[in-house]
Amino acid sequence: MTTLRVKGSGTVLATDVRHARSVVSRTRGLMLRAALDPGCGLDICPCGSIHMMFMRFSIDAVFYDREGRVTRVAHRLRPWVGLAFGGRGARGVVELPADAAAGVQVGDVLEFDDTGGTSP
After folding, report:
1. In the Cβ-directed half-sphere of 74, how many Cα atoms lie within 13 Å?
2. Domain architecture of the chain: domains with CATH
3. Is the alpha carbon torsion for 28, 42, 99, 50 positive or negative?
4. Closest C-alpha among 63, 2, 55, 10 to residue 30
5. DSSP strand E in the chain: where?
6. Which is the most buried residue in 35, 36, 64, 116, by most CB within 10 A?
């Protein structure tokens, strides 16, 4: 399992982050899932933008660069109509349950505490 924190403040954003690295897993993302449980997230890398087609629930999206620095935070992206771009330098995105990224700001640094995964 991977825990995601905001470095410095230590704020935990998720305790069960899965990594989507293959073309298939990055393309599928969270599409067609019924929900994303509290404390869970999906880290998609590489990824500079996302869409909400075929999604059934709202999410927060936290985009980050190569150093894990937040480039953009998109709150409460709505199913079917949402679209978000990570901004300049975005390398990946962590998709979280709606409102899980409250308080995360551009410039914060993400810290992935992996037990076998990879970080940005």
Report:
1. 21
2. 2-114 (2.60.120.1140)
3. negative
4. 55
5. 2-6, 12-14, 16-20, 40-44, 49-51, 59-64, 70-77, 83-85, 92-97, 110-114
6. 64
Task: Please name the residue that has the structure tokens 């409250």.
Answer: 102
- Compute how many other C-beta atoms are within 10 angstroms of the C-beta atom of residue 93: 30
Q: Do 61 and 43 meet the contact criterion of CB atoms below 8 Å apart?
A: no
Residue 109 token pair: 């640094």
- List the pLDDT tens digit at each of the 120 positions of the chain: 899 999 999 999 999 999 999 999 999 999 989 999 999 999 999 999 999 999 999 999 999 999 999 999 999 999 999 899 999 999 999 999 999 999 999 999 999 998 644 445
Token readout for 59 is: 């999410």
CA distance 71 to 61: 11
Is the pTM value of this prediction over 0.90? yes
